[in-house]
Amino acid sequence: MPKLTAEKLTAELAQGTVAPVYLLTGEDTYRKGLIIEQLRKAVNPDDFNYFKAQATSAEVSEGLAQANTAPVFSAVRLVILTGVDKLRKGSKEQLALIKYAQNPLSTTTLILTHNDAKKLKTDKTLAAACEETGRVVNFDELKATELNAWVRKQFADKQLTPDADAVQLLCESIGGELAALAGEIEKIYLFTADREDKHITQQDVLACIGFSKEENPFELSNAILACDKKEANLQIDKLLANGEDPVAVLAKMTYPVLKMARIKRLAEAGLSSGDILRGAGLLPWESRLVNNARRYPSQAQFLAALNKLIEADSGFKSGANLDPKTALKGIVLTLLR
Question: Which of 128, 94, 134 is nearest to 111 (CA)?
């Protein structure tokens, strides 16, 4: 059987198709957990025919013993072994899993999770065995466009319609940790539960993640991306006055500078807008940044600003006698002179 995406596996399960072996690979444990729950509901084992454990030596032995045993007073049995990437290559436990996967019991569904993508590239023996008789499903961490789409779907599932900048703010605030994102979306859902208007704005997101309009954590980043020197300096003053650590302010500046530099380099190479979006790891609605590329600083200015970013980072972290306001505004002046 071929490799599947998580979406295709979900569709299969909805049609009642269950394979005897599943290998869930990749580092996104949140979506793996959701799929495991879907598989458990699809198989629907009772307590006597359900086994779940981490893939230690003893538990692999017990898990395979269970998998090779016909279900008790039931038609099906479910066995789950997590973290099989911890097993040593060529160990007796790994070889036993491979042997079972090549000839699984039809009344058992065995689910294995493998969380180390790098290790899987160098040792494909288990994956190859699972492909023969079951399903291998990859769960890489979602990036850029995929993460944006995932967040939008979570909102849509709750009948909420977010603005593009609301999705951006949520993704940039929380990052790619899906469990945390799901928790924040649930908070936004509860926050708007009594509201007839289910349109989610950036201000709704700010309110739910603990910022007021005046404390928008992306104002400095937005000012730099807009090449607005005056606003960027005002935001530096504001953040430092509110007690923000200079290293944290520096981090807010580094991301947009690197993003602008990537866009400028790709634009000067003559790439199309679509290729620049993909090459710079941008989301579709960030095309305005590509359109602004001609206004961005020269490569020489980017290099000078990056050198100052590195110097400031080293100075702040080493405890050097460095005035934060002068150092941070110096970066803005170098970049946008």
Answer: 134
